[in-house]
Every structure is written in structure tokens, then in C-alpha cells.
Design a protein that fits this description.
Blueprint (H helix, E strand, L loop, with lengths): L1 H9 L3 E6 L3 E6 L2 E6 L1 H4 L17 E5 L4 H10 L6 E7 L2 H4 L2 E8 L5 E6 L4
Parallel strand pairs: 4-7
Antiparallel strand pairs: 1-2, 2-3, 5-6, 6-7
């Protein structure tokens, strides 16, 4: 869990430990990702999660408000390889019709992170 929280903090996310050590959250703008401790996601009694939730099964997209150069510098600074990108992709804006430029990386658990930059950002 420490490596995950450190990774997201280096990306500029705010780490919340309000429900630690069972649940940790990372916040980015108006978005939040909850990380459940193994003790919680292995429990059959805890059902407020994906039915087959395991590390590495996430696929998250974040709108990057900065420049492509700033994103590239940040990714380089945290020494994470770019999986794909920058590439043109349809994003979630305008009902999924807006086109932006996306860059993909993985977090320490293998979850896929997409950072999309829209032309008006």
C-alpha cells in the first residue's frame, strides 16, 4: 500500500487516510480512487467493490489540465514507462464525442492510468 500511495502522491494526487488502515483514498480534482486493504477485498462480507476486485484490474482516465510537456516531465520524473502515447483518443467529454490526446502508464499494482488532454484545457 505504501508504494501505491507514494506513486499517486508523486503524480500530484492528494492522499487521504481518513479510513486507514482498511481504506486509503487518492484524490485528483473532483475524482477519488479508493484502495482497499487485502483484508477488506478478500472478505465475502464486504460487497461495495467490484465482484472480482484484485490489484491491477483498474482502468482509470483523468483529465490533465496542464500541458503535454508538463505531463511528460512528471512521468519522466517518477520514472514510469509510457505504455502508449501521446495518441489521439475520444474521451468522456461531450457525451464521449470530444477528442483529446492521451498518454497511458501503469501504477505499481499494474492498473492502467490514462491522462487525457483536451484542446481547450
Amino acid at each position: 500500500m505504501t508504494a501505491m500511495l507514494s506513486f499517486y502522491e508523486k503524480l500530484g494526487f492528494r492522499v487521504s487516510e481518513d479510513y486507514a488502515p482498511i481504506v486509503y483514498s487518492v484524490c485528483f480534482g473532483d475524482n477519488r480512487i479508493n484502495f482497499h486493504a487485502p483484508k477488506l477485498w478478500q472478505s465475502e462480507e464486504f460487497t461495495l467493490r467490484g465482484p472480482a476486485a484484485r490489484p491491477g484490474c483498474g482502468d482509470f482516465c483523468f483529465v490533465w489540465d496542464g500541458s503535454a510537456a508538463a505531463l511528460a516531465t512528471l512521468i519522466d520524473d517518477i520514472k514510469v514507462p509510457v505504455i502508449t502515447g501521446p495518441v489521439e483518443r475520444q474521451g468522456g467529454r461531450a457525451g464521449g464525442t470530444a477528442v483529446g490526446t492521451s498518454t497511458y502508464i501503469r501504477d505499481p499494482d499494474g492498473n492502467l492510468l490514462e491522462f487525457i488532454i483536451y484542446p481547450d484545457a
